[in-house]
Amino acid sequence: MGECADKLQVRGIAKRYGEIDALLPTDLTISSGEFLTLLGPSGSGKTTLLQMICGLVPPSQGRVIIDGQDQTDTPVHKRDIGLVFQHYALFPHLTVAENIAFPLEMRGLRSADVRTKVNDALELVRLSELGTRFPRELSGGQQQRVALARCFVYQPSVILMDEPLGALDRKLREHLQVEIKQLHRKTGATIIYVTHDQEEALAMSDRICLMNQARVEQVASPRDIYARPETSFAARFIGTSNVLAGKAEGKEQGPSVRCGSRSFGTQAHRFVEGEDVALVVRPEAISLRGEGENRLKGRVIETIFGGADVSVLAEMEEYGTLICRVNATSTTPALGEVVEFSWPSSAAVVVRR
Question: Which residue of 208, 212, 259, 318 is most buried, as measured by CB atoms within 10 A?
Answer without folding.
Answer: 208
